[in-house]
Amino acid sequence: MVNELYNKAILTLAGNIERTGRLSDPDVTVFLDSPLCGSRITVDVKMQGDKVSDYAAEVKACALGQAASAIMAKHVIGQTAAQLHEVAGAMRAMLKDHAPPPSGEWSELEVLQPVADYKARHGSVMLPFEAVLKAVEEIAAKRAAEPLHG
Questions:
Q1: Each residue's pLDDT tens digit, 35-74
Q2: Sequence-distant (≥ 6) Cβ neighbours of residue 46 within 8 angstroms
Q3: How far apart are alpha carbons 90 and 94 in whole angstroms?
Q4: What ranges in the chain are assigned the alpha helix state H?
Q5: Nearest Cα residue to 39 out of 17, 10, 62, 58
Q6: Separation of alpha carbons 118 and 96, rounded Å
Q7: CA 29, 106, 140 angle in degrees (round to 5)?
Q8: For the segment 36-46, what is each residue's pLDDT rounded down to a tens digit?
Q9: Cβ-proximal residues to 72 (8 Å cutoff; 6+ apart), any chain
Q10: Helix 81-97 to helix 122-145 angle, to the nearest 10 degrees?
Q11: pTM greater than 0.85
């Protein structure tokens, strides 16, 4: 298990997470944890229109969660809520149903395919996706609640 799950590609990703830390003026901050494995993530997200314009995260997770967070940090800027829902759904299907990994710019997530066989690790891998989805949903809800100016 250890050699298959914690391979060089995953360890390299885990050790090189971009966009770590916090934003000074996020539109929203989301904290999530995975009680099963103890992984935790805090994400700060800014959106301009319907696209993520800035992102930062503090990640306290195993190498698998860190690798997923690293891939999220590489690709989240410029993504719409719909695109993020799509990639999160593809990841969930890859882990739970052994579906093919996400494609296109998210194809690097393929390195996490071995996690499908270890259900206890799914939460850590999905944490950055769930946190970002919650953030974009909170931003959309805030915007919907704002009175129209004009």
A1: 888 899 999 999 999 999 999 999 999 999 999 999 999 9
A2: 23, 25, 26, 27, 52, 53, 54, 55
A3: 6
A4: 2-5, 8-14, 63-75, 81-97, 122-145
A5: 62
A6: 10
A7: 35
A8: 888 999 999 99
A9: 57, 128, 129, 132
A10: 160
A11: yes
